[in-house]
Every structure is written in structure tokens, then in C-alpha cells.
Amino acid sequence: MEKLIQITSGRGPLECQWVVARVLKTFLEEAKQNTIEYEIIHRENGDENLTLKSVTVLLTGKDLTPFLKNWLGSVCWIGKSTFRKQHKRSNWFIGIFELENVKMIDFNEKDIRFQTARSQGSGGQNVNKVNTAVRATHIPTKETVFVQDSRSQLENKKLSISRLKEKVTAVYIQQLERKLKETWALHMQVERGNPVRTFSGTDFKKNYEDKTFKKQRNALKNDLKNYKNDLN
């Protein structure tokens, strides 16, 4: 099972872009814990470092429904702005949606047709008399590359596969970007007041855990103090 998931700040401000980046990290950590494979297909960087306007993730797993049930919808972060200290707002919302009806391009080397030709130099002169150049065509998409970098036909064939895959992937990304524009309305449908997940604090954890051991040290000091008093 595969699903495309988009995490977006919508039209939200810089704070929401920061939340997208933090949610992405938590989202991927939980996916890994649930033995779900993921691949980041597309991302749009935010206006500041370590922020994201949106990111699209491809999830692969046996049953993604239980995992996504706890994520799809709006996500709320409760906290003071890390960019505008005096800002009064403390609730920031982002959206997580499933992108449906987006056809994935399955790149398979079996779908490539190879043709050989003589490498050509400037002015149409033959670089050599052997057919070392390779033209590779991806039959499903009809995308084509021509490679003559090496005097070895085998090396040119390897390069043609790599470059053709990049070209086909680029076409897919363009299609995906068009789909994202078509679904931009989703960005405006981020529900406020009914989030599926809520986080708080800059540590972005549901339950804050004191890792400084300050409380434990103070407790030990008090125990020792009481022990000395008991001896006296």
C-alpha cells in the first residue's frame, strides 16, 4: 500500500512553517516505529532556516490506515512565537492531507529501449568508427536521452539509464506540482479548534520530561540532610 501525504502550513505565517518542520520530524519518527517506509517526494522550504511551507511524503506499508487516522486533519502547536516574542497568539495550526488520484511513475529498466549510434564530434565528424553512443527511450513516458560521454558503449548505457531516470522523475515532479496547485484549496481547509494532534512547548513533546536531573539531585541532598540530622 502506498499513500502520498502532504503536510502544509497553508497560508499560515512563519510560525506555522516552523511547526511543519517539527511535525515532519515527529511524523517520520512515528512512521519508522510503525515499520512504515517513507520517501520525501517534494518539499517547499520556508522563509527562514529550519522551516518548511509544505512537504509531500510517500508512505509504503501493509496497512497505513491506523497510523494515518491519528494524523490526517489539523495539527495544533501551543506555544509562544519563536520569531516574534511579543506576539500574543499562542495557538498555531497546520494541515495534513492525503493526496489522492496522483499516479506514480514506476521506473523500470525493462521499459527502456536502447539504440546505438556513432558518437559525433563538432561539425558532424565521427569521433570514432564504432557505435558507442547510446540513445535510451523510456517507453511509457516517451522520454529520451542521448549519451556519448564515453568511448565505452557499456559506460554510456549505464549513464543513459541514470539520466533517463532523472528526466522521468523530473516529469513526475512537474505533474505533482500541478496537482499540488490544484489541491491548494486544501491548504485553506485547515480546521481550527478540532485538531487531531496537539503539541506544546519548544521541545515539541506531549509530556515534558525533565532531563536535567535537578529534582533528583535536590531529593538526594534532602535525604542526606535528613540522614545527618537523624544521626545527631
Question: Would you mind describing this structure in some detail?
Answer:
The protein has 232 residues and is an alpha+beta fold. It has 2 domains: 2-104 and 177-209, Alpha-Beta Plaits (2-Layer Sandwich); 109-174, Double Stranded RNA Binding Domain. Helix content is 33%, strand content 26%. It has helices at residues 14-33, 65-69, 153-182, 184-187, 214-231, and strands spanning 2-8, 37-45, 52-60, 73-78, 91-99, 112-117, 133-138, 143-147, 197-200. Strands 2-3-1-5-4-9 form a 6-stranded mixed sheet, sandwiched between helices. Strands 6-7-8 form a 3-stranded antiparallel sheet, with helices on one face. The longest helix has 30 residues, at 153-182. The relative contact order is 0.16. Residues 207-212 have low confidence and may be disordered.
